[in-house]
User: Which sequence fits this backbone?
């Protein structure tokens, strides 16, 4: 994932900063508790494609 892209991407729902999780290939929004997938190097920033996660995963 390009570091410059990570600097400008925010959550499409709440506009919070995202955390990049390389091992899972996801961008995580902690306030929304959603993980947006990265497929073939492209972040999929659609709410319908996001995976909800529990507080234990934070």
Assistant:
């Amino acid at each position: 994932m390009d570091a410059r892209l990570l600097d400008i991407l925010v959550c499409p729902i709440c506009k919070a900063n995202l955390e990049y999780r390389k091992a899972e290939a996801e961008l995580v929004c902690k306030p929304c508790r959603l993980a947006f997938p990265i497929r073939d190097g492209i972040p999929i920033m659609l709410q319908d494609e996001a995976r909800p996660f529990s507080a234990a995963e934070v």
In short: The beta strands are 19-21, 26-29, 34-39, 42-43, 51-52. The mean pLDDT is 92. The two ends are 21 Å apart (CA to CA).
